[in-house]
Write a structure and sequence with these properties.
Largest sheet: 12 strands, antiparallel
Helix content: 10-25%
Number of strands: 12
Radius of gyration: 17 Å
Order of helices and strands: HHEEEEEEEEEEEE
Strand content: 35-45%
């Protein structure tokens, strides 16, 4: 289990990039947030992302780990790829999160990483994901203790909006489609199911919120930020 210190240190380092990128932020400085989080001054409900003045020229993700404060990542660039564009989100201290159609396809700089993720066959496009259970295969590499080509059979199922009281931030639920993604694995550790919220606008489908895990103890809540009812 990752310690609270390591989780807090990672998230505050990610959040620090937003202060550098925007050039301004109201509320407590990130160094104060760091010290306060480690001392227990602020509980899990404290949200430092609300103190950040966003730069309208940048795109953001709100990311949260269990029992930790949320932070914002900034889109660095988009890589073309056969399965669709890969968005590369990053922090000032070098952590990377790679997303393809909203799914994690790589991380770097974390205490536990999936440096490479690939699919065969590829997942169905979100616009075509309303059919009964669909299967595809995911492979990933892990480190530390490099483990290559871990294989999971994935199943994508439409689901009702989850009934939850612990959403990370206000979500405009109107017209969202929800999916659960399960995995069956023989040689790798089972991870919790993923959850995706899909927003549709002008014929496009976009993941606006998801919960995805690299391991039972290393789970992300990922949200397009700021929240909005439709695609921008």
């Amino acid at each position: 289990m990752l310690s609270f210190f390591r989780l807090s240190a990672l998230l505050v380092s990610l959040a620090l990039f937003v202060t550098l990128a925007t050039g301004c932020a109201s509320g407590p400085t990130w160094s104060v947030v760091m010290k306060s989080a480690l001392s227990g001054r602020y509980g899990p409900g404290f949200d430092p992302t609300k103190a950040v003045k966003l730069n309208p020229k940048l795109r953001y993700l709100r990311v949260q780990l269990p029992n930790s404060q949320p932070a914002l990542l900034v889109l660095g660039y988009v890589d073309p790829a056969p399965g669709g564009p890969v968005e590369v989100w990053y922090s000032s201290s070098g952590e990377l999160l790679r997303l393809q159609s909203g799914r994690i396809v790589g991380t770097a700089g974390l205490p536990f990483d999936w440096p490479r993720v690939w699919f065969d066959p590829s997942p169905p496009p979100w616009k075509d994901a309303g059919k009964p259970t669909q299967k595809f295969v995911r492979y990933h590499d892990e480190r530390p203790g490099y483990r290559a080509g871990q294989r999971q059979v994935m199943r994508l199922l439409p689901t009702a909006e989850p009934l939850r009281q612990d959403w990370p931030s206000k979500l405009p639920f109107a017209n969202y489609r929800w999916y659960t993604e399960t995995s069956d694995s023989i040689h790798s550790v089972h991870v919790p199911n993923s959850v995706y919220a899909i927003d549709e606008h002008d014929g496009q489908s976009r993941v606006v919120y998801s919960e995805q895990c690299l391991s039972p103890d290393w789970c992300f809540k990922i949200q397009a930020w700021p929240p909005g009812p439709t695609l921008q």
